[in-house]
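Hello,

Our lab assistant flagged a job as stuck in the queue for most of the afternoon. It eventually completed. Since we weren't sure the result was trustworthy after the delay, we are filing this so someone can double-check. Below is the sequence as submitted and the structure that was eventually returned. Let us know if re-running is recommended.
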Amino acid sequence: MNGVNLATPHPLQPYWDLTLAAVRADALRIALEWRLFNLLHLPASAQSIARQLQLDPANTGYWLDTLWSMELLSRDDSQPPLYHNTSVASDYLRPEAPDYCGDAWSFRLRGLRHFAGQLGDQVRAGRPSGQAPDVATTIDNWTSAARLQIAQEQRAVTVDLALRLMAQIPEFPGARRMLDLGGGPGLVAIALARDNPLLCGEVFDFAQTVSVAADNIRLAGLEQRLTVRGGDLASDSIGEGYDLIWCSSVLHFVPDCLDLLRRVLGALRPGGLFISAHAERSAQPGMNARVMPYYLPMLMAGRFVPRAGEMAGLLAEAGFASVEHAGECDFPMAPLTVLLARKGVR
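-- returned structure --
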């Protein structure tokens, strides 16, 4: 038996893992629904958790062991064992945590499961010619998400990403006027204004949605430096005279991306910078392992999800003087490609 490796994974293992993921997702789903991570802010036994939640003690132990295997709980060697939140659960899944993302995670799970249940019908029937998504429903859904789920993701993930990126951009310290394009709850604009005390600007989104950003701006005490502008990206003015425009995961929803990019160019001052952070479809299958499942609903709805290099080509066609690839950034659900597009000085 020397030299025989019996532990080599079978070629089908990645696809068997898909079936296991369904159980892991529901283990986390009920943990969030039952606010388990509040109860495990301090160590507790399965029996104690079962009493508090009125659950079966034995099955509660198996459920906690599953969450332990997912590295959401730690487990000691006492008898009975005591379970405790790991740092991930404590920082992001405990409702009282500043960076709580439980609602955002559940929102994504519900949306993708709903789409997956209809996938066969979508592939079979396609999208009727000329059919567009219900704009009113989209605005209502986006506004509701901006108030809760998108705000959680911006607070826990996007803000830190934007700040780390700005630390590498030479134009940022000298920027005086910025636009958060499709900014939803406006937390990126708020973070950038706090990081650069001379920065003023606007958050642009649907008229209903910018009311959420306006509330957050008031809570941050930045009404003198940040304002909101409501409208439709496809047709309305986005303002002008900006040194910096930030746009993350928004261009997928615009019917004519090139037209918007030309308007973005016109809204920048000479030498101004446009930062685009959007998912791209790679030519390599492995690079698409997260992009394709998440963006498949958008593609099948006729939304714009660019192929690798396509966004850079559109920026050049729109008239930007230079387009710099700033790398890939990890993001909720799927990685994004960051492009820095600069307007000429003349």
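-- support follow-up --
The delay was a queue issue, not a problem with the job. The result is valid. The chain has a mean pLDDT of 93. The longest helix spans residues 13-33.
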